[in-house]
Amino acid sequence: MKKQISLSLLFLLISMTSMQIFANEDWGQNGHRTTAQIAQKHLSKKALKRITKLLDGNTIAVGSTFADEIKSDKAFRGYSKWHYVNIPDGKTYAEIEKDLEENVVWGIEECINKLQSKDTEVKDQQFYLKMLVHLVGDLHQPMHVGRAEDRGGNDIKVEWFGEKSNLHRVWDSNMIDSYDMSFTELSAHAQQLSKSEISKIKQGSAETWALESQSLAKKIYESVEDNRNLGYRYMYDWFPQLKKQLQKGGIRLAKILNEIYG
């Protein structure tokens, strides 16, 4: 009996640790689902129909967390590098691309290529579609284009409303959790944009969007240089920008999916 209880406690601790690891690495579940939900609203009817069929009736919001869920499987460890990219200050992605390993920009382009290929089997199409949905979200979490030396802010310790955290986690989940809205509520309350504003957001590619996130990451680093005790003021200053990133990611994801399936 004692042995069974001990094993149960061990399993619980391992599960809790895994959940913490996932929470620390990119947009939490709500963030990814919000981006996917926004994207779905911008899909063409043809693209939506084809995607729904490919995902066996599921939505892209449901599939948006797949890339995190597979991290615990050793068979998928090779995809861990697809979640981020580190671009040195003053450099463009194109300038350092040949020196980079697989990364989030590379991963997005790889998913697009696989989904556009007629030789990709249905099972693999499902895999790369769910990966694409997730990676476009990751690209718009600015700390995923943060500095390599502090692991995208993971090593920058801060307090969030008096609780220990780090800069990466603040942007992953702390702010979203503190706002206390579901992904459907967050997507429903996204900023109302004009057609010209949406068109402007769609411009560019994964490379240029990475540089945009890098530029934002620099400002985020500066935001904690003099104060690492974060709370209401930080939410007031930065949560509107976080919501913009979720929305941009959704609009750009829809653009990519419409080009593939529309």
Number of helices: 13
Per CATH, which architecture?
Answer: Orthogonal Bundle
Report the order of strands and helices: HHHHHHHHEEHHHHEH
State the strand order across the main sheet: 2-1-3
Report how far apart the termini are.
58 Å
Brief overview, please?
The chain is mainly alpha-helical and 262 residues long. The protein is built from 13 helices and three strands; from the N terminus they run ααααααααββααααβα. The protein has a three-stranded mixed sheet with strand order 2-1-3.
Structure in words:
Pfam families: S1-P1_nuclease. Keywords: Disulfide bond, Endonuclease, Glycoprotein, Hydrolase, Metal-binding, Nuclease, Signal. There is one protein chain. Helix content is 63%, strand content 4%. The protein has 13 helices and 3 strands, in the order ααααααααββααααβα. Residues 1-24 have low confidence and may be disordered. α2 (29-41) packs across α8 and α3 packs across α13 (232-261). It is globular. It has a 3-stranded mixed β-sheet. It has helices spanning 2-25, 29-41, 45-54, 60-63, 66-69, 93-96, 104-116, 122-139, 167-179, 183-188, 195-202, 206-223, 232-261, and strands at residues 157-160, 163-166, 229-230. The chain is mainly α and 262 residues long.
Descriptive labels:
single chain; 262 residues; 3-stranded mixed sheet; 13 helices; hydrolase activity, acting on ester bonds; hydrolase
